[in-house]
Amino acid sequence: MTGGKDGRGEGGRRARGELESEVLAALWAAGGPVTATVVQEQVPDAAYTTLLTILTRLCDKGLVTRQREGRSHVYAPVDDQAGHAAAGMHSLLEEGGDRAAVLARFVSELSVEDEQLLEQLLHGDSSV
Amino acid sequence: MFWPVPMYLPLLVSAVLALGAPWAGRRMPPRAGAWAMVCAAVVAAGTWVTELAILAFTAVGQVPLVAAQGPWSVSVLAAEDPVSRMVAAVCAGVVLALIVSLTVASWRRGRALVDAWRECRHIAAGGDLAVVDDPVPAAFAVLGLPGRVVVSSGMLRLLAGPEQGALLAHERAHLRHRHHLFSLVLHLMAALNPLLRPVERAGAFAVERWADEEAGAAVADRPLVARAIARAALASSRARQAALAATGGPVPQRVQALLAPPVRRRGGVMAAFAVLMAACCVSLAVTAHDRERLFEAAMHAHAVGAQLPTR
């Protein structure tokens, strides 16, 4: 078991894979076809040319579609699984027990008191 | 009936370690806490099983079939044995039950890990991220070669750009530091000794906090991570009525910890924890040595007894 394997450079240089994930996340979050400029607003620390390279790669992988709209291209994420992936995810999440326990989930269930406490914490933080 | 205290001391010390470890773990920085919980679980469970096996073995050594294989004197063992037959038999039964429990837990967890990997491997991924088109907010990391972060489109639409970065950094920290292995070891040790369940929970919480702090460092903004967690948790709890098994540590405590200054390493807690771990190992070593001496005496008697008739 290794605990100290830390491959990240501290100087802000990120692995290509990580940037690719962030671009894909931004496209999904946008909820509709967007231009590369809009994506760059969400991933500000990537150069525009890098962004175009990544978008092209995502298109080649079949994860993203590109369409011409006026003078520029718009990009949108593709869901080619006909709901299979969503069904699989739900079966993993809803089974409980060991199957749910092996997923390192971002957030767990909340009780009613937890919800109230969280609301307070969110609103107590003025920058929200 | 009088039993010398040192015989049972390791069981007592390992119980104290199991009960005291969560207290210490909560007072350590998350990374140190996660490692401490895993070490405590392994040492406490190891001591508990080894000591039970030692207690059982003297009785096993007196069973004629076994005694015939070993060059030791059964009468010396029986005369010197500080453990009653009854206690030894119970210990042997418990050891067998624990082996079964460990096997079942390993099988279930192993199968669940393979199932999760199989379910997620078909989802197309850009980099290490696989997005599932689904309105229910969900995000988790799946073990694999390489591991994957699976996030629903509902979760991505819910979070602002920088918050998505925090979420990805959190899940990547789980994958990079092999947090699945931490939770696997903690779970198996708790299967060996139910007293370790609070240690398992404390370890799971420390692992989540560890990933939170890594995410905070990656986006250079701890309150941002706190907000991302709070918003994700509130939205997913509203989206789902069905109760799911909670695996991420309690959310409000994680948010509070991120809004508070980082936990400093405290020498006293670390020292107390280290002393407890050492006490556990030493007590086990002392009783193991006692047993060894008893068997040596029995072997010596056997050797002398074997020589007598030939003279």
UniProtKB/TrEMBL annotation, chain A:
Record keyword Protein transport present: no
An individual GO BP term: negative regulation of DNA-templated transcription
A GO molecular-function descriptor: DNA binding
Domain of life: Bacteria
Signal peptide (from-to): none
Key words of the record: DNA-binding, Transcription, Transcription regulation
Pfam families the UniProt entry points to: Penicillinase_R
InterPro entries attached to this UniProt entry: BlaI_family, WH-like_DNA-bd_sf, WH_DNA-bd_sf
Family per similarity comment: Belongs to the BlaI transcriptional regulatory family.
UniProt protein name: BlaI/MecI/CopY family transcriptional regulator
Organism: Streptomyces guryensis
Upper classification of the organism: Bacteria, Bacillati, Actinomycetota, Actinomycetes, Kitasatosporales
